[in-house]
Structures are given as structure tokens and as C-alpha cells.
């Protein structure tokens, strides 16, 4: 593309440009990897600067100066987000944190609640019409430019030209400083092998929740980057997110991100900032797949909700047993920023078919403390309210909180806490009167091996049924399942008329389940935005190295082949746990169940015992 020459009357040196910043000025500096580093160095090196107030969203370069006493005397720094390089300074009180949603910062500038005297920005060279691009930093920078009394722009040929509402005309810029330099690079990576394994496990659980055709918002940091790497088997994903990074490139190149299925702004990835390496900067350069707009548009919940099947994925520092989320502070110490987690979560909740995911490791400080805690730490800020949280994911599984009571939330979250802390969390919940005093804690065991017991079946009626082992948090869903059964169905399963499925009954069942000698598989079918149990298949250790097997299928799902499918899956698990076969006790009138057993085990032995039919079934070995 042919470029315009810089107008000589506006082109000055960095030193001359920043010399016009008066004492007491309020200066905005472009965000993140779009920082005008050459201008920042000139400003910091100008010892005549006095009482300058700096506003910035994400700061990198100023970390070089923040510990210099002379810099602190001359400049005051206010950040909307605290990056890793600024955390120590934040802990020491050397910077001032402004907790504000990124989507609301432009309004703070527009209303002059935060006044801007000078904006220091970085732009691409002008095109033949005189338009420069803000490139990788549109976010809140565009609004700052609109409201600043003076704009000083570093013109850098390495700044990509990004599509969307990212352009400033030369007429809008007061001073131009031509200086070529590499853009700041920032790519959060997990190098520790144990941390990487934890992140991969979390990412796999997150990927289970994401279906083809979903539109994604992915948060900032190392864990979200790992999540993106685990989406390589999805199809036709869309993007509407605050930030684009290198992690997206493989998904674009493989066609996994196509943006074709988006209901809002299809065929484009909507974003407002880009942070990464030269690879992503080259990829977004003049690429019409990307549409950059300011944060007040991209992060607005009403805009987010226009995307059907919108999935918001963000991280947290800690989650309490009621579902409150802290993501910007460690106790009283500010750690990151409010960002727009809450807005994306609310936008996803308003989206047709949308939902949100909070992902975090179960522990911190080398496993010494739990990130799932009874109550938020003293001083911790609530970034996301308990009423807004849907899924919470750790390396130990998925907790679904939306629409759940405090009792249910405690058990869901305790189940995905680190095994070392589960009993302690349940005991704390009892003291807080969140749960019953006789509640059993989840097993203090890593149940990752249960993942291989998960499967899926398409039923004769065309519905998809997912199958997985039952867990203590399923108590209420199991209760609802029980009460959905006809009296005759209950009698066929339990050989007695049971009219009340009590909490005590459930506790006895959980006490027996060890997922080896005793296991129950549940079949779940989606109804609108939730799943309901439609079948349960169980085996329990009995005599002669066999397991007694039993099934119950909801009446409206009988005749769909569910019992046969569950029997096949239970046999796989029983063989793995070295059982030689199954046994069952069946009422003579339960002819459908007898047919299921006969079909699977034609040589099954059947005999009458006390008026019931005892069925003995041997597994066929792999060598037969």
C-alpha cells in the first residue's frame, strides 16, 4: 500500500514533542504491546517533567523506572490493570490502581471524569489518504485520543495496520515522531512441568464444555493460552474477545476458528487489543479476518449477548464455597485488574445458548493452600458475583453452579477442590451451616481415571445421551430422577415400594461408592439449558468374584436401548477391575430386563430364588 509522507510541520524529535508536556499534566499512554516505548523513554529522561499524572491500562516500559526515586518524585502512575512487571510496585504502594471495567473507561474519558491533557500513542505510518492505524492497541486508546487536548504519536513502520475502527487521520495528531523499533512482545507461557500438567487437565475439562460453532471470549494469561491449545478438535469456532494472542494462530490456520457460524458480525474475529510476538503482529496486519474496536463496544454485555452460543472463559485467583469469585487481588494486595470478566460473563448468560466458565488451578503456593475456600480472603475483592457464576473448572473436574443452592454449590466445588482439602472444606461448610451435619465429603482421591468411563450414545429417538460415573454433587439430580419414576419402575429396581428418597439414603450410597468395587453410571440428556438424569446403571461387588448389576431407566426413555448400552459400559469397567462376571436378581415380570441380559449373555444361567430370577453372567475373555 502506498504511504503518505509525514507532514514536515508536524514531525519533530521525541525530546521536542514531550517537552510540550506541562507541569501537572494528565498523560495517557497507549496500552500493552502498543506502548510508544521511544516516547516513554524521552519523557522519563526529561528531568524538567514535574508532577505528571500518568494513566495507562497495561504498562510494561514504566517498570524500568518505577523503583527510581527521582521518577517517583516527578510522576504518579495510575493503572487500570496491574501486569506481572508492576505487581511488586503495586504491593509496595508505588502505583495507584483504578478498579474499573475496561468497557467503562472510554466513558470516564468522554465525561471528563478522568481528564486527559496529552495522549502518547503509537501508530502505523499513514496511508495515501493520511490515515494511521492504532494497530494492536485500540481498546481504550481510541477514546483517550478523542478526548486528549494534545496527541503525540510515535510513527512506527512495524506497527500493523488493523481493520475496524482503528484509524486516526494525520489532521487529528499534533506531533509525529518517526521511530522504528520492535513492538513489545508478551507471551505468557507455562514452563514448570507440574504447572503445565495441571493447566492441560483444566484445559481438557474446559474443552469438554465447548461445542462446535460456539463463539468464544478467552481471558488474559497463561491458563487461557493453554485452553486455546486444547481446542484443536473443534469446528467452526468464532471469536469475540478483548485480546488476541499468538495462541489463536494455529486455530485460524487449521480452520478451527472460521467465524462462519457467528450470529453477530460473522466471518470476523472481533477484538480490541493484540498482545504477543511478532508472529501475531504480522498475522493481524492488514488481515480482514480481524475487526478491532474500542473496549466500550467489544466488552459491552449487550453487544456480547448478540453472539448466539457465546462462551466466556476467564480465570480467577480464588472462589469461595458460595461461588463468589476474586480475580484482581490476593487479600489486600492488588494483583491484576477487574478487566471485564463480569461483563463477558453477563453477556454470555444473556446470549442464546451461551454460558461462562471460570477456570483456575485447585491450589496455590506449591499445593500448600486451596484456591477453593470457605470464604474469600480478608481484603479480597469480589470480581464476579455468586449469582453470575455458571461453570467452575479445576484440574479435578467441572462444577456447575448456575441455579444451584448453597448446599449444592458446596458439594460441587468441594468435588473439584484438591483431594487434600475436600474434607476440610466440607467441615468448614458445616460450621457455616451451609450443609447438613451428616454430609459426607467427596472421596479424597484424584478421580481423573473416571474420565475414561465417560461416553456418549445416540438414542433411538435421536437424542444424545452422555454417560459418566455418578458423584456426590449429583444427589439432588438423582433425587429428582427417583421422583420422576413410576411406582412400578421403582419396585422393579428395589424390590420394594419406596416412596421417599431421603438424604440418609443418598449418604449410604455415597459411602459405598469407590468407583472400583462399587460404581454407578448415570445417563444424562439435555433439556433446554440443563441436563437431567434419565438412567442409572450400577454394579456392586458380590460373591465369587462377581458384581451384582442393576438398572433403572426413566419411563419416558424406556425402549431406547439405554440399559443395553449401560450394561456394555459397566462390563468394560468391571473387567478392568478384574471381575469375572455379573450377577443380577430380577423380578419374573420384568421381562424387558431379562431380555437385555439374554441378548448380551446368551449363555447366562438363570434360576429361581425365593420367587425371583437369579441371573449369572460370565464375561467373555479377550482370548476367546
Largest sheet: 8 strands, mixed
Major beta sheet, strand line-up? 27-28-29-30-31-32-34-33
CATH architecture descriptor of the largest domain: 3-Layer(aba) Sandwich
What's the alpha carbon Rg, rounded to whole Å? Answer: 30 Å
CATH fold-type name of the largest domain? Glutaconate Coenzyme A-transferase
**Average pLDDT number:** 92
Low-pLDDT parts are none
Tell me the number of structural domains: 3
Under CATH, the homologous superfamily of the largest domain reads Acetyl-CoA hydrolase/transferase C-terminal domain
Per CATH, the class of the largest domain reads Alpha Beta
The total strand number stands at 34
Structural class by SSE content = alpha/beta
Distance between the termini: 71 Å
Fraction of residues in helices?
25-40%
Given the structure, what is the number of helices?
Answer: 20
Strand content: 15-25%
Verbal overview:
The protein has about 625 residues and is α/β, with parallel strands linked by helices. It has three domains: about 15-180, Glutaconate Coenzyme A-transferase, CATH 3.40.1080.10; about 195-430, Glutaconate Coenzyme A-transferase, CATH 3.40.1080; about 450-620, Gcn5-related N-acetyltransferase (GNAT) (Aminopeptidase, 3-Layer(aba) Sandwich), CATH 3.40.630.30. Helix content is about 25%, strand content about 25%. The protein contains 20 helices and 34 strands. Strands 27-28-29-30-31-32-34-33 form an eight-stranded mixed sheet, with helices on both faces. Strands 4-3-2-1-5-7-9 form a seven-stranded parallel sheet, with helices on both faces. Strands 11-10-16-21-25-26 form a six-stranded mixed sheet, with helices on both faces. Helix 19 (about 560-575) packs across helix 20 (about 590-600). The protein is elongated. It starts with 13 loop residues before the first helix and ends in a 6-residue tail after the last strand.
Amino acid at each position: 500500500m502506498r504511504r503518505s509522507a509525514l507532514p514536515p510541520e508536524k514531525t519533530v524529535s521525541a525530546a521536542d514533542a514531550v517537552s510540550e508536556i506541562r507541569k501537572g499534566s494528565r498523560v495517557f499512554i497507549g496500552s500493552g504491546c502498543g506502548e510508544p516505548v521511544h516516547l516513554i523513554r524521552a519523557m522519563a529522561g526529561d528531568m524538567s517533567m514535574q508532577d505528571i499524572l500518568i494513566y495507562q491500562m497495561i504498562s510494561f516500559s514504566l517498570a524500568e523506572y518505577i523503583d527510581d526515586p527521582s521518577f517517583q518524585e516527578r510522576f504518579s502512575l495510575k493503572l487500570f490493570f496491574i501486569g506481572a512487571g508492576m505487581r511488586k510496585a503495586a504491593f509496595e504502594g508505588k502505583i495507584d490502581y483504578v478498579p474499573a471495567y475496561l468497557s467503562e473507561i472510554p466513558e470516564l474519558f468522554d465525561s471528563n471524569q478522568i481528564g486527559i491533557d496529552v495522549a502518547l500513542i503509537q501508530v502505523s505510518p499513514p496511508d495515501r489518504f493520511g490515515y494511521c492505524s492504532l494497530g494492536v492497541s485500540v481498546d481504550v486508546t481510541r477514546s483517550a485520543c478523542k478526548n486528549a487536548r494534545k496527541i503525540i504519536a510515535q510513527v512506527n513502520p512495524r506497527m500493523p495496520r488493523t481493520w475496524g475502527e482503528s484509524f486516526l487521520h494525520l489532521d487529528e495528531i499534533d506531533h509525529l515522531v518517526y521511530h522504528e523499533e520492535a513492538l513489545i512482545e508478551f507471551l505468557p507461557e507455562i514452563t514448570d512441568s507440574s504447572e503445565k500438567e495441571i493447566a492441560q487437565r483444566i484445559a481438557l475439562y474446559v474443552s469438554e464444555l465447548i461445542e462446535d460453532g460456539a463463539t468464544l471470549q478467552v481471558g488474559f494469561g497463561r491458563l487461557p493460552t493453554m485452553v486455546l491449545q486444547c481446542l484443536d478438535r473443534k469446528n467452526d469456532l468464532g471469536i469475540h474477545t478483548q485480546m488476541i494472542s499468538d495462541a489463536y494462530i494455529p486455530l485460524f490456520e487449521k480452520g478451527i476458528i472460521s467465524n462462519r457460524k457467528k450470529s453477530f458480525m460473522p466471518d470476523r474475529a472481533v477484538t480490541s487489543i493484540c498482545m504477543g510476538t511478532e508472529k501475531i503482529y504480522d498475522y493481524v496486519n492488514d488481515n480482514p479476518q480481524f475487526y478491532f474496536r474500542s473496549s466500550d463496544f467489544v466488552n459491552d454485555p449487550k453487544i456480547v449477548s448478540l453472539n448466539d452460543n457465546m462462551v466466556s472463559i476467564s480465570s480467577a485467583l480464588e472462589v469461595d464455597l458460595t461461588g463468589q469469585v476474586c480475580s484482581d487481588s490476593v487479600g489486600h494486595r492488588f494483583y491484576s485488574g477487574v478487566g471485564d470478566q463480569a461483563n463477558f460473563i453477563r453477556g454470555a448468560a444473556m446470549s442464546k445458548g451461551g454460558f461462562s466458565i471460570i477456570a483456575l488451578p485447585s491450589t496455590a503456593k506449591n499445593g500448600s493452600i486451596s484456591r477453593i475456600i470457605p470464604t474469600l480472603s480478608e481484603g479480597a475483592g469480589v470480581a464476579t458475583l455468586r449469582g453470575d457464576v455458571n461453570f467452575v473448572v479445576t484440574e479435578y473436574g467441572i462444577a456447575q453452579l448456575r441455579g444451584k443452592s448453597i448446599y449444592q454449590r458446596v458439594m460441587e466445588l468441594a468435588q473439584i477442590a484438591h483431594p487434600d482439602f475436600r474434607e476440610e472444606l466440607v467441615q468448614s461448610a458445616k460450621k457455616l451451616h451451609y450443609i447438613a451435619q451428616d454430609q459426607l465429603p467427596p472421596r479424597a482421591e484424584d478421580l481423573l481415571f473416571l474420565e475414561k468411563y465417560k461416553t456418549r450414545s445416540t438414542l433411538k429417538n435421536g437424542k444424545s445421551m452422555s454417560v459418566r460415573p455418578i458423584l456426590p454433587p449429583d444427589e439432588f439430580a438423582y433425587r429428582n430422577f427417583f421422583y420422576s419414576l413410576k411406582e412400578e419402575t421403582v419396585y422393579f429396581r428395589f424390590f420394594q415400594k419406596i416412596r421417599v428418597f431421603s438424604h440418609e439414603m443418598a449418604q449410604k450410597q455415597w459411602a459405598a461408592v469407590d468407583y472400583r468395587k462399587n460404581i454407578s453410571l448415570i445417563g444424562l440428556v439435555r433439556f433446554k439449558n440443563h441436563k437431567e438424569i434419565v438412567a442409572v446403571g450400577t454394579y456392586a461387588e458380590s460373591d465369587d468374584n462377581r458384581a451384582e448389576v442393576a438398572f433403572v431407566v426413566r419411563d419416558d426413555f424406556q425402549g431406547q436401548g439405554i440399559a443395553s448400552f449401560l450394561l456394555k459400559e459397566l462390563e468394560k469397567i468391571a473387567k478392568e477391575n478384574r471381575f469375572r462376571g455379573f450377577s443380577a436378581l430380577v423380578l419374573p415380570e420384568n421381562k424387558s430386563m431379562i431380555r437385555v441380559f439374554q441378548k448380551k449373555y446368551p449363555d447366562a444361567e438363570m434360576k429361581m430364588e425365593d420367587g425371583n430370577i437369579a441371573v449369572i453372567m460370565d464375561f467373555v475373555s479377550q482370548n476367546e
